[in-house]
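wait is this the right file?? whatever heres the structure
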């Protein structure tokens, strides 16, 4: 399997580091604990810090990555295995931490985010989002960390009424506590409550980010979310399968834009606050998305099918689009990668990694 760092990701990291170099320098000489560092989002944090160590920092940043690889691919971060500034710990974040080093920043990115996988592992999903988070909050309190970042989700909003789209952080949500998505949605909501309480009672400098449909290189082609599903069909010369009528809409955010927003939040002084991080430029239907993927790959047809999963569409939001006013005003966050360019980069990555040097 491919263990070198993808060229597509290298270019993303290089451009991203230029954009926020001034903020990233706050990490110089520090130690960062990242849970879920082998995952889609966590892996980018590791690669970004590695790039900064090589090209920006005079005093390197050290990283402790905690990962149990329940939904991550070990090969994603294997190129860092022997890096002297990275310690990769194979552990479930729910278990007691055994870390005797001073930690300055904590990023809790461990989570099972794909509906297919969190419905397969509902208890583990809840435990990671609540018990794992509490473990880290307690550790952060003891360490007196400079900042703590919790990954929530846009799923906490559920299925907003039209008047709440684009959706602001002040919207309280329309979420089922017993439906097939509840293990993920409700544990993330409780996670946010924990974060706010630890800030209010103990002064832990927590920031919460709510990602809106992030995609890009590093997202497994077998992840079972819509964009990898479409590419999996198209790149294997199959018809792109739509398991709905194609009408639901989403606003997708390219990974480098998302990581920029996450880092700006982590390195800000807006403790106890939650931020939408996404792209508000285009809200696209699933049918139009399928057409766009088909166009990028070339010669791909689309078919409407019924899912074998009878709960596939239950509690599936009809629309999702972020209001980014707060992130723009307080963080200076502005996404810049348009959807077609981002999908093109993801296509290049899938061809390099999955269709090229190895088949997953």
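ok assuming it is, sequence goes like this
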């Amino acid at each position: 399997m491919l263990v070198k760092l993808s060229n597509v990701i290298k270019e993303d990291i290089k451009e991203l580091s230029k954009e926020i170099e001034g903020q990233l320098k706050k990490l110089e000489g520090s130690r960062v604990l990242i849970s879920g560092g082998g995952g889609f989002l966590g892996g980018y944090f590791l690669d970004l810090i590695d790039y900064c160590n090589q090209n920006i920092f005079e005093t390197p940043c050290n990283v402790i990555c905690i990962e149990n690889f329940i939904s991550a691919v070990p090969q994603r971060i294997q190129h860092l295995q022997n890096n002297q500034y990275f310690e990769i710990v194979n552990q479930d974040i729910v278990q007691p931490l055994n870390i005797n080093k001073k930690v300055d920043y904590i990023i809790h990115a461990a989570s099972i985010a794909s509906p297919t996988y969190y419905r397969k592992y509902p208890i583990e999903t809840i435990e990671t989002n609540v018990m794992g988070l509490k473990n880290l909050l307690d550790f952060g309190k003891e360490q007196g960390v400079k900042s703590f970042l919790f990954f929530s989700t846009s799923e906490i909003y559920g299925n907003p009424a039209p008047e709440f789209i684009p959706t602001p952080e002040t919207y309280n949500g329309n979420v089922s506590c017993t439906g097939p998505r509840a293990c993920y949605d409700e544990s993330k909501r409780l996670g946010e409550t924990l974060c706010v309480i630890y800030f209010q009672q103990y002064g832990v400098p927590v920031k919460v980010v709510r990602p809106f449909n992030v995609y890009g290189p590093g997202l497994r082609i077998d992840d079972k979310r819509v964009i990898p599903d479409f590419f999996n069909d198209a790149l294997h010369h199959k018809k792109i399968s739509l398991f709905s009528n194609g009408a639901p809409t989403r606003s997708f955010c390219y990974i480098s834009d998302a990581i920029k927003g996450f880092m700006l939040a982590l390195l800000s002084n807006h403790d106890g606050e939650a931020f939408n991080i996404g792209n508000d430029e285009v809200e696209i239907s699933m049918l139009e998305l399928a057409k766009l993927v088909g166009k990028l790959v070339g010669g791909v047809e689309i078919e409407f099918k019924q899912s074998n999963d009878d709960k596939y569409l239950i509690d599936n939001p009809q629309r999702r689009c972020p209001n980014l006013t707060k992130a723009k005003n307080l963080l200076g966050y502005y996404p810049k990668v348009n959807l077609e360019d981002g999908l093109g980069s993801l296509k290049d990555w899938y061809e390099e990694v999955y269709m090229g040097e190895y088949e997953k």
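The first strand starts at residue 31 and ends at 35. so i think its the right one actually
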